[in-house]
Amino acid sequence: MYNQFKSISLSHRNAPLAVREQLALNEAEAKGIMLRLKDFFDVSDVLAVSTCNRTEIYYSSAADLNNDIIKLLLIEKGIADIDTFNQYFEKFSDGDSAVRHLFQVATGLQSQVVGDMQIPNQIKHAYQWSADLNMAGPFLHRLLHTIFFANKRVAQETFFRDGAASVSYAAVELLEGLMPNPKVLIVGLGEVGTDVCRNLAQKQGMEVSIINRTKSKAEQLGAELGFRVAEFSDVEAEISRADIIVSSIVRDEPFFSKEMMVRLRGMSFKYFIDLSVPRSVSPEVEEIPGVMLYTIDSVRSKADAALHRRLEAVPHVREIIHEAMLEFNDWSREMIVSPTIQKLKGALEQIRKEELTRFTKNLSESEMEKVDRITTSMMQKILKLPVLQLKAACKRGEAETLIDVLNDLFNLEKEKENS
């Protein structure tokens, strides 16, 4: 079978964040893993995908190398407890399941937030890394271009990509509409706060500052995303200079109070977006003129409405994937007979040239051109039926039998040896 695609997957579906973050790969690490695979194993069509929610490696090989690749990945990341981490991986050892999984990942069906719009770009980056290393063969090229076309259909034909379906992205969509080119302050870098930062990093025209009680975490994220880092002790001064404050800090009682706002008398108009549970911004802050508060409930209702529309579109997305996979599988099966078709063409072309050499010595140039065109046309017509029959046999799963018949009839294996 031509489709020897396989994959390993570590994702939010089976692994906690503490495990996923240890196995995340940046571009250099992803390329390094792919080169290691090339050095150690007989693989082709290698793709390394890494996002905040998943780390996956796809490859083509006659052998099932899933456990070996997991072990190599863990060793490369400096993890000695291989047995413990191995249990978090999903393994896809047959071509159809691995291809289907990549379709579902790339379209956003497997995302933590269904329909995640960042996924197609992340897959494109992974594809570029593979191409940079010359590790994307005809199979992977065709597969990914089929996936990209399916993604285009999903965007055009469904509501699967409409609206902000996560709280963090809905918060970013909200603050984008509040004012042009705002100064944004993010306070608290838990999972939600970090997601807000990552979504903001894709936007233009905003000046973003971040604050966290553990400054080292803020410095690491700030360096990664290019955001300004401020001291937690300077939070009131940072509020004064910001236009929009997004809070996701964890406390038993509100951190941003009416009293704090009174102390900051004379400040400009402020928007607070409170993503904390329990609330970190007191409702009383809105009693201060010029202060407006959005709570997590208002943000979440917007996200829930978008998520509902996306979930309604899931059956249509699955139908698009099914149609795309049928087309890809037809192509994949036809690749089985491609070498035989090329050998048959070569054998007939060799006969044609030999006969032309024997019988056209006394022809003029114009006569020779005419004979060449006639014999080429005849050869193409002779080839047409075997090629169509081979492709039809592929769809019936009977290609191997017809390949053997053609090899015997035209002695194609000998032609291959003599070529």
UniProtKB/TrEMBL annotation:
Spell out the catalytic residues. Answer: 52 (nucleophile)
Q: In which pathway does it act?
A: Porphyrin-containing compound metabolism; protoporphyrin-IX biosynthesis; 5-aminolevulinate from L-glutamyl-tRNA(Glu): step 1/2
What SUPFAM superfamilies would the database entry show?
A: Glutamyl tRNA-reductase catalytic, N-terminal domain, Glutamyl tRNA-reductase dimerization domain, NAD(P)-binding Rossmann-fold domains
GO MF annotations, alphabetized: glutamyl-tRNA reductase activity; NADP binding
**Site annotated as Important for activity: where?**
101
State the Gene3D superfamilies in the record: Glutamyl-tRNA reductase, N-terminal domain, NAD(P)-binding Rossmann-like Domain
State which Enzyme Commission number(s) the record gives: 1.2.1.70
Domain (Glutamyl-tRNA reductase N-terminal): give its ranges.
8-158
Q: Which InterPro entries match?
A: 4pyrrol_synth_GluRdtase, 4pyrrol_synth_GluRdtase_dimer, 4pyrrol_synth_GluRdtase_N, GluRdtase_dimer_dom_sf, GluRdtase_N_sf, NAD(P)-bd_dom_sf, Shikm_DH/Glu-tRNA_Rdtase
**PANTHER family referenced in this protein's UniProt entry, alphabetically:** GLUTAMYL-TRNA REDUCTASE
Q: What else is known?
A: During catalysis, the active site Cys acts as a nucleophile attacking the alpha-carbonyl group of tRNA-bound glutamate with the formation of a thioester intermediate between enzyme and glutamate, and the concomitant release of tRNA(Glu). The thioester intermediate is finally reduced by direct hydride transfer from NADPH, to form the product GSA.
Tell me which family the UniProt entry assigns to this protein: Belongs to the glutamyl-tRNA reductase family.
Quaternary structure, from the entry: Homodimer.
- Report the protein's function: Catalyzes the NADPH-dependent reduction of glutamyl-tRNA(Glu) to glutamate 1-semialdehyde (GSA).
Q: What is this protein called?
A: Glutamyl-tRNA reductase
What is the gene called?
hemA
